[in-house]
């Protein structure tokens, strides 16, 4: 059997930001700059930027509790036709939930049946081709994958 050699993932950028509200804008701008020439359509780039901003905001607020001295780490890699953005915080172990998370429901939120918050992961998941979360001790990482060669969610490029 013949195997096709795939190039190793290529690191495009890696940086840290203080866990301060507003720094999600710095993260999205830097990620957008380093992937600008990789073939994403304008609409897919905007979706990636939205996902990066939301994930970074979650890391700042929920993971690192707005403690500026604990940085959010961002790494951008390219693996073939995939752009992968890893955003890490030091949020500690997540308490076990009893059952799957409830999907956000706009009508329930408007009538007070659900908290007005809680759109983050739902939004992120629907902006990128794949989203994964890993927990290793205190370290939480959300992995955002966007393909350059194909359309996400049936969108034409």
Concise structural overview:
The chain is of the alpha+beta class and 157 residues long.
The overall number of domains is 1
Rg over CA atoms, rounded to whole Å, is 17 Å
- Judging by the overall fold, what is the CATH architecture? 2-Layer Sandwich
Q: Under CATH, the topology is which? A: Heat Shock Protein 90
CATH class: Alpha Beta
Order of helices and strands: EHHEEHHEE
What is the total tally of β strands?
A: 5
- What distance lies between the first and last C-alpha atoms, to the nearest angstrom? 35 Å
| Overall morphology | globular
Question: What does this 3D model show about the protein?
Answer:
A 5-stranded antiparallel β-sheet has the order 1-2-3-5-4, with helices on one face. The protein is α+β, with helices and mostly antiparallel strands and 157 residues long. The chain is globular. 25% of the residues are buried. Strand 2 and strand 3 (82-89) form a beta hairpin. The protein is 29% helix and 25% strand. The protein has one domain (10-150): Heat Shock Protein 90, CATH 3.30.565. The protein has 4 helices and 5 strands, in the order E-H-H-E-E-H-H-E-E.
């Amino acid at each position: 059997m013949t195997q096709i050699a795939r190039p190793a993932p290529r690191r495009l950028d890696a940086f840290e930001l203080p866990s301060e509200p507003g720094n999600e804008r710095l993260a999205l701008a830097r990620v957008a700059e380093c992937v600008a020439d990789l073939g994403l359509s304008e609409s897919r780039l905007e979706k990636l930027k939205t996902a990066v901003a939301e994930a970074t905001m979650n890391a700042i607020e929920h993971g690192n509790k707005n403690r500026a001295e604990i940085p959010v780490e961002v790494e951008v890699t390219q693996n073939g036709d995939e752009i992968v953005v890893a955003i890490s915080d030091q949020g500690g172990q997540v308490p076990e939930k009893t059952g799957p998370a409830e999907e956000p429901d706009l009508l329930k939120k408007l009538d007070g049946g659900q908290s007005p918050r809680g759109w983050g992961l739902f939004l992120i998941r629907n902006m990128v081709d794949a989203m994964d979360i890993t927990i290793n001790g205190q370290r939480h990482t959300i992995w955002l994958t966007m393909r350059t060669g194909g359309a996400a969610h049936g969108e034409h490029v």
